[in-house]
Write a structure and sequence with these properties.
heterodimer; A: 136 residues; alpha+beta; three-stranded mixed β-sheet; two-stranded antiparallel sheet; 3 helices; elongated; B: 110 residues; mainly beta; five-stranded mixed β-sheet; four-stranded antiparallel β-sheet; 1 helix; 9 strands
């Protein structure tokens, strides 16, 4: 057989492949933003997937015991965090992570609406400092 | 049909190419791209030919493909940098080629 017609790539398949590539790039950009870390209460907080789990566990312990205090490892060394600080830090991390997924959803909506542009991959991701936990 | 040419240094002779609608016959082997839908692509691996290189596409109803163009050691500009060929009428496709230079006469000395 001189032509193997089973290998034909239709316009629809090409478009779907191109769309999936863009979706993967959006997800990759979200992951980079998500795990880039934040500053909460003046401390740099790792927002990698492992760290997200650790801070969630610590916040859970702090919720069960308002007097809970633990030594938390930061890039600059160990610091002592009390329950309100742990909860505030975990909340800040959660808000950051959710904001990243929200931005990913916005970009996917833009893609579906045909208004996505490559430049949007570098815009709109959450960042910056998170305020100090409220006293009390 | 739009035929792009990819010049390659080779001792192979320029192939005989005949066009008919969406089909090309290359050195007697028929490649009928009629079933290729518009905006669809055939990857290079799907076409069993040493002459057809790269993807075959149908764009706005017209087949686009690339043929290897063999040439000698010193190709002319027309062969080294060939223009794409648009074929409409059925028949032989004229590919650019250089007429081989006659072999130098060797003096026979007894």
């Amino acid at each position: 057989m001189s032509i193997d017609w089973t290998q034909v790539v239709t316009a629809e398949q090409s478009a779907e492949t191109a769309l999936n590539v863009i979706k993967q790039r959006i997800a990759a950009a979200r992951f980079i933003a998500e795990t880039a870390g934040i500053t909460a209460g003046g401390r740099i907080v790792d927002t990698g997937r492992d760290s997200q789990g650790l801070i969630t566990g610590a916040a859970f312990a702090a919720t069960l015991d308002p007097a809970y205090v633990c030594r938390w490892k930061t890039p600059t060394g160990f610091v002592e965090l009390d329950a309100p600080t742990l909860i505030a830090t975990a909340s800040a991390v959660r808000a950051h992570v959710q904001a990243c997924f929200d931005r990913e959803a916005e970009l996917l909506d833009a893609l579906a609406d045909g208004i996505f542009a490559d430049s949007m991959l570098k815009e709109g991701w959450p960042g910056g400092s998170i305020p100090e936990p409220a006293a009390g | 049909m739009i035929i792009d040419l990819s010049p390659v240094r080779s001792d192979k002779p320029v192939p005989e190419v005949v066009y008919s609608k969406d089909a090309l016959t290359i050195n007697g082997q028929v490649f009928d791209f009629g079933p290729l839908p518009d905006s669809a692509t055939l990857p290079a691996a799907a076409v069993d030919s040493d002459w057809i290189v790269g993807e075959v596409e149908r764009i706005d109803g017209e087949i686009h493909l690339t043929l290897m163009l063999p040439h000698g050691p010193n190709p002319s500009h027309a062969v080294a940098f060939p223009e794409p060929i648009r074929v409409i009428r059925a028949g032989a496709v004229k590919l650019p080629f250089d007429v081989p230079e006659p072999a130098e006469e060797v003096a026979h000395v007894d």
